[in-house]
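Changelog-adjacent note: as of this version, every example in the card shows the full chain rather than a window. The one below runs 239 residues end to end.
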Amino acid sequence: MRSVVAANNARVRSADPTEDNPRPVDGMAGHRLLSSRFDAIRAEWEDFEAEQGRLPRIEQVLDEDQGNDGAWRAGLLVAHGRPVRPLADRFPVTVAALQWFPGLLSALWSVLEPGAELPEHSGGNAGVLRYHLGVAARGNTALRVADTLVPYRDGAGVLFDDTAPHAAWNHGPARRVTLFCELLRPLPAPASWGNRAVQRLLALDPRYRLAPHRAAEWHLALNPQHPPAVGSGRPALPR
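Full-length structure tokens:
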């Protein structure tokens, strides 16, 4: 698998040699879409918090340590392009907007508790880009991509290639909440065809393939006061 990803990374970088990182978001259709619904998205998050909603740690969803110092919590909303219930049912406006986000592969609530840090690291898959939208991001909280520092702000988006060294932290007194999206990297053909195939292959990795089931199990365990909507419940365990 590593050799397949490495070969795809080389093709991707050849087809898209853009050096801007982070990348501009002003002309990005998905960013405009989420920005236009920002007040409703933030209201859904605030309602969840007011109802004492709880999210698992990200390592409980991915079944793998992510290297963070302090609590990093995650609420999986979309995986493999599809809503992850029952949590997705708590955020109908947010999930409906995400479903129209061009190239969206997955999306989650990403919550850094006060004092939490994600030390500098680099992703291994150049076939995707990461997009973060600040939802509750007040105080001393930021993302650094290579030598560029990007403070998180409510309603502000940041798009970046996470194969560059990057780090994030929340040194403020309150939770830092973002919508964290993984996007298929826009590429010309034929590089785009091969990249899609590699991303489908990576989706078979148990860390990602089983994440929706783990996320549903954790949601039901942590939020017994939030019974699933009729017809939702947990997704079937993939075989």
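Structural remarks: Confidence is low (pLDDT under 50) at residues 233-239.
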